[in-house]
Amino acid sequence: MHNVQKDWLSAIATAALGAGIITTFAVSQGQNPFVGLSITAFAAGVAVIIDHFFL
What we know:
By secondary structure, the protein is mainly α. The protein has two helices and no strands.
């Protein structure tokens, strides 16, 4: 059965953690930290939208 009431905060935290791991590696390789943070925020937002509206 589909869970209609989902926890937005845990979805955002999980998505940001997953994207943040890859971003941390990219920043350690020389990527601009602000670009890395913006990529993390975008990836987390898209993951939450997909999770709540399409799954």
